[in-house]
Amino acid sequence: MNKFTFILLLLLSTSVLAQEADRNSAQDAKAILPEIVSVTPPPSKIYAIKQNVDFAVEFNEIVDVKGQPKLELIVGSTILDAPYFSGTGTTTLIFRYTVNKRDADADGISVNPAIVLDSGSIRDDDSNNSKLTFAPPPTSGIRVDGVKVDFFLNVLGRNGVLIVIGMGFFIFCYVNSIKIFSWMDEQTSGTREYILKKLEILHIEVDPQRVTWGLLLVSFGSGVFFFCVLAAIGKTALGVVVAIAATIAGWKLPRPAIDFFEEKRKKKYALQMVDALNLLANGIRAGLTMPQAIGMVVDELPAPVSQEFNLVLQQAKIGVPLDEALENLKKRVYTEDNEMFVTSVNILRETGGNLAEVFDTITVVIRERVRLQLKIDTYIASGKIQAYIIGCMPFMMILMFGSGDPDYFPLLFGTVLGIVALLVICGMVALGMFIILKIIDIKV
């Protein structure tokens, strides 16, 4: 054998030995079994019924779970299962125990130091079964109380609790039935009657059936409209919330709206009372009777003062006493000036006196009050503007942020937290504007 052959054989034997060593090392690596590194218990506290108690079991490598392995917990004197919950394909498996009715352990639960496979398996990628034992974690602070929270269910049972709640609700409704039905009538037909009464005071003739349909359209119609629009774009839950809010708002808004127009008419009436009293005073001085002087006001002045005095005149013509007709005027248009005018006329008609001088005095008082009110309105105009600006600022900021961030509007209008935040913003803005407007609402 020459040197060349010897060297060749030596190299071949070295290569074979190296391959055998690699094969043995790979087999040794596959033979390494996965094992539990640690078990992390949940925070120490008292867990009530339906609360979850999760244990995190950490392995030294990725494992796959088949079946339903479990941990065994000792709660009081009872062994309960904490079945596998999640984590397959990772190094951490979660085992969850949910507190049930009558579970109780005031001294702290304990954990058996091994996973029970129960026809399941925990293996690594090489199909090696995991070691199942571990050092028990500290669990003395984990206490269970599934009795106290569910006391009534334990004593009465679910049906018994429902019966008790139903009986209590029935008794409450029976005792307060008159108030409940009065409230329901006020919120339904009461709103309709209120609107019709105010329209009559405003001298607006409307068919009652149209008022009914209008209220239904504004309330339920707006609710159905908003629900359909939002449901069409996939926002059904938001559509339900907005529809309910729109229905309630649509049913409640007509009252303040009609009150606003009535108050606006009262202010116009108060401004015209100065001219009306001047005409009455001049008519009395010229020798006219009170009904004749009122007729002159009806002919010379525009609405609304001419409408109200014409109604007084018509009532007097059909036999209603003048003092009663004037009292009806005071009830229809209740202002301080009207009350002073009606009271003075009725008193002087019984006791005697110079009506023209009284009307002149009332005219001076009204003029001074109007002048002072206009002066106050000038001072508080800036406050009103500030209230409106403050009310608009949050919504302008929402538009500004939304225009710069495409994810802003979906988060604000498409999530529960965003909707709640929006409702809170609207509520706080409304409260702030209400407080500011109340502060600057100065009566003369």
SSE sequence, one letter per element: HEEEEEEEEEEHHHHHHHHHHHHH
* CATH topology category name of the domain at 36-146: Immunoglobulin-like
Helix and strand composition category: alpha+beta
Biggest sheet features: 7 strands, antiparallel
So how many helices?
A: 14
Nearest-angstrom radius of gyration?
A: 43 Å
Report the top-level CATH class of the domain at 36-146: Mainly Beta
Mean pLDDT, to the nearest integer, reads 83
Strands, count: 10
Head-to-tail CA distance between termini: 131 Å
Quaternary structure: single chain
CATH second-level architecture of the domain at 36-146: Sandwich
Strand content: 5-15%
Low-confidence stretches at least 5 residues in length (pLDDT < 50)?
A: 24-31
Helix content: 55-70%
Label the overall shape: elongated
